[in-house]
Structure formats: structure tokens, C-alpha cells
């Protein structure tokens, strides 16, 4: 495991070397030019050398920071967890990520307020984020958009029961979304396996995501992949919340009990994945609502024509053929009073900023608990 981790670190350093060399040369150019100019002024007995010396010192400081970041990735050491603020980790990495990803990739970092602290090895967390970002870049050979964001997440018992080695509880989530080619189900199933790669020979070891998975598992966390062919991929990194070094008296918000829905309220669920659809229907019926369902947009419009009294359209965003947004627009054109709640495995910023939804769209992110569903449906209605 130690050798595999070290191999992966060296591969990642290879990935960022080009960007680092470019930046380092720029810094050296500033230092050399500033010192030569300062020396000439001092030889002539003129004032103003301090400005150039300050510029050289600043360039040297930036170069030192850059090398320290490289050394953090290269070091050989066992995991040494410390209490981290995920927002700060992402903020500190953003410039290095920009260099690594190149100019063709538009990077957006979205930091949320009040993100929970985690207890994890900083260097390994940074490498895990970089691994996923490099994979995302490679999935967008002609460029695209990469959204990296932080949020709080609650994984409930139902999610834990259907995902191996997941403990229900509170997690800090780092989600990385690309607009690349996406993965089919077979690729998704093998994505975390060591030495599995879809890249050409010599282009990758297939250790990137296995390192991410191993680090998160060792840290008590979890990784998941949500992907659609031709649309993109979201990799979600969950790290358990820690209460270490938190101010006293900060308690987790109590989970509100779900309230009963009105059987007179008719809800239409639209979801192309049959298992997800049937569970959503069962959940809404458990809450007391009357529920219809459809597997795609055209079928949903037929159901609406037969049941014009439908109060809420609960639809997946990304579906084959007609998207959730297109379905909602078509449905509202005929039934103006219809309320719409979207759901997706992507994160909110990735969906909204990629132009799939309006910024004010109501959205429930997968995975969600029964209480999450109850609160969101009640709010939208």
C-alpha cells in the first residue's frame, strides 16, 4: 500500500510539473530582473532600489510556497490526521489546481458557510482532490468546466444500508463535477479498483481513484460517483464530521420530524432509473401523498394530460431524451399552477452554473433522507 501510494504521488507530481515549471520560471524572472535593477541603481548611487528588492523578496516567497506544496505531495509518511476546515483546504489549493488543469478548463470553487471540520491527513486529502481533478481534466480533452465545492451532508440509515462500509451520520462533502464525456455503469462500477484505467498505455497507472477510495476509507469516509454519458461526472468525497477544536455550545441542528402529507395532493414522480423511481414513489406515499410516476418526459406529459389536477412535478434533472428542465417548461406551458421540484445526483452549483437549471429552481440533492424529502416537498407546495 505504501509503494502504491508513493507511485501515485509521483505520477501526480508529474502531472503538475509543467504548470509549476512555468510559474517558477516567471518567479525567477521577477527575482533576477528586480535584483539586477536594484544593483544598477545602487552602483549609480540612486534611490529606489528598495522597491526592486521588495519585488524580489515577494517573488522568492511565492517560489518557496510553491516548493513547499510540492514537497507536501512528495513526502513519504503514514497518515497524520489533523483537524481541517475543508473550505480552507480548497481555498489554498485553488491556484495550484488552476495551474494543473490548464487554460482550457474553467475552474469554479464554491465554498459554503459553516462547513463542518474534519479530522484527516491534509496532504492525502489534497492529493485525493488533485487526483479527481486531473481525471476530470482528462475527461474534457477539448476543455470544459470543473466545479469544486464544499457542503455539509447527512448520510442516513437507508443510504448506509445500500452502500458497503458506510456509517450513517454527518459528513463534510467535497464534490468535484466536470462537463466531460461521463461514464457508463460498467466503468463506474470499476472506477475505484486499483490499476483500472480507461486511458491509453503510458497515460495513467489506474491508481488515482483507488488512492482516493483507500484514503477516504482509512479516514472513516466514503466516495461515490454520479455520472451521465455525454453530460459529465460528479465525484463526491465524504469525510466524517469531527467535533474536535470546535467552540463550546455548538450543537448539531436537531433533525425535524417529517409531517404527514395530504392524500388529496397528487404528485408525479419522473425518474429514468427504475429503482430510484420506485423508492421515491414509496417514500412520498409513506409521507401520505397520492403519487403517480413516469420513466421519461413524454410519458410524464401523457400522465399530466390524464391527471390535470397534479399539484407537484418531482423530476430528475438529467434524463435521456427530454431533460427535467425541458419537461418542466413543457408542463408549465399547459398547467401554469403546477409546482416543480427537481432532484439530481449532481451538486446544486454544478447544475445551476452549467445552465441546466434556473438559479432559483427548487432542487433536492441525492442522496436524501425521508425528512429531507418531507421538508422540501412541503416547502415547494
At a glance:
By secondary structure, this protein is of the alpha/beta class. Helix 1 packs antiparallel against helix 2, helix 1 packs across helix 3 and helix 4 runs antiparallel to helix 7.
Characterization of the model:
The strands form three sheets. A five-stranded mixed beta sheet has the order 2-4-5-7-6. Strands 9-8-10-11-12 form a five-stranded parallel beta sheet, with helices on both faces. Strands 1-3 form a two-stranded antiparallel ribbon. Strand 8, helix 8 and strand 9 form a beta-alpha-beta unit. The N and C termini lie far apart (52 Å). Helix 4 runs antiparallel to helix 7. The chain is built from twelve helices and twelve strands. By secondary structure, it is an alpha/beta fold. About 3% of the residues have low confidence.
Mean pLDDT: 84
Query: What kind of oligomer do you see?
Result: single chain
Report the end-to-end length measured between terminal Cα atoms: 52 Å
H/E series: HHEHEEHEHEHHEEEHEHEHEHEH
- Which strand order spans the largest sheet, edge to edge or round the barrel? 2-4-5-7-6
Helix-residue proportion: 40-55%
Proportion of residues in extended strands = 15-25%
What overall form do the CA principal axes indicate? elongated
- Unreliable stretches (pLDDT < 50, length at least 5) are 246-255
Overall structural class, as computed from helix and strand content, comes to: alpha/beta
Q: Tell me how many strands there are.
A: 12
Backbone CA Rg: 25 Å
The main pleated sheet reads as: 5 strands, mixed
Q: Count of helical segments?
A: 12
